[in-house]
Amino acid sequence: MATLTSSKRSATASSIRRHERLEIAEQDRRNAAELGETKVARELQKAAASKHAELQALKAKLEQTKQDKQSVVELAEAKLVNELVEGCRHEGL
Fold first, then answer.
1. 56-78 b/e with 16+ CB inside 10 Å = b?
2. What would the pLDDT profile of 43-70 be if each residue is shown by its tens digit?
3. Chain-centre distance of CA 70, in angstroms?
4. How far apart are CA 54 and CA 58, in angstroms?
5. What's the rounded Cα separation, in Å, for the pair 50 and 54?
6. Measured CA distances, 59 to 1, 46, 69 (Å)
7. Half-sphere exposure of 78 (CA within 13 A, CB side)
């Protein structure tokens, strides 16, 4: 009878240890998944920040191009006006 009780205790202790190991493994799995999610979120934030900076740079370049174009148009208009004025002077108008 003592052997049977000892066997039951040993089986129970073994079952408890196995259960504890399973709980630890499950917690390790959850921790690894959480760490992976955190890493992915961080990488996505970096990528979004990079794309945002790139977009801002492109917007600034576009605005500068618009300003440059406007300056060229204004210079061309001024040149035409001056040419017209000079032409009128030469013709005595």
1. eeeeeeeeeeeeeeeeeeeeeee
2. 999 999 999 999 999 999 999 999 999 9
3. 34
4. 6
5. 6
6. 86, 20, 15
7. 6
Both tokens of residue 16?
């408890």
Q: Is the pTM value of this prediction over 0.85?
A: no
The pair of structure tokens assigned to 67 is 């300003």
First-to-last C-alpha distance (Å) of the chain? 133
Q: Residue 3's pLDDT is what? A: 59
CA–CA dist 59, 51 (Å, integer)? 12
- Tokens (6 digits) for 86: 């000079």
Tokens at residue 4, please? 């049977």
- DSSP letter for each residue of the chain: -HHHHHHHHHHHHHHHHHHHHHHHHHHHHHHHHHHHHHHHHHHHHHHHHHHHHHHHHHHHHHHHHHHHHHHHHHHHHHHHHHHHHHHHHHHT-
pLDDT in tens, 64-87: 999 999 999 999 999 999 999 988
